[in-house]
Amino acid sequence: MTKFIAKTISVLFHPLILPTLGVLILFNSGSYIDFLPFSAKKIILIIVFVSTFILPLTFVPFYLFQNIISTVQMDSHKERLVPFFISFCLYVFCYYLLNRIGSLAIINWMILSGAISVLLLFLVSIKWKISAHMIGLGGLTGTIIALSFLLKVNLQYYLIIAVLISGIVAYSRLTLSAHNPKQIYSGWLVGLISTFVALYFIYPVFQF
Fold this sequence. Notes:
The protein has nine helices and no strands. The chain starts with a helix and ends with a helix. The chain is mainly alpha-helical. The protein has one domain.
């Protein structure tokens, strides 16, 4: 039963769904972005959801058929290379589409910061298995912290929830023996630092 619950939690908070959650948080941040027209929010959300969730999932049967991965869990770090690289490309594609429709720069950079964390995930995975779940949740946490400073809004409740979910997912991944503690902690820190730096330090530079 414990492993069933851990697996359910891992599925519910899969890294692929986190960019969409990040955009939803931004749309309900209590900032000027809340006042975007509903039609604009819907288009942005659809682009992000399809590019970073639906499209990566559609590649899974192809990976299995071509023996790129042996299982959907991708137990070996080498099995993860192709899926992670394609996910990175899809993030960049999402960023391109958002730019083309004239989406707000801060939304575009949220996706770009996610792309950077996925690229780091790919590079680390060349030599070592690191937790994609924790990079994703660390990235979401770093995004919330950066947005709270950039937009000058109080996102403490989102931050608390993100940290709590990070802990629950970390425990779940350890319960499933999917990762060891070092892979969990390093994954969360890589995600947190990369997204925070990209949004808080690099993003403002490109606005001038």
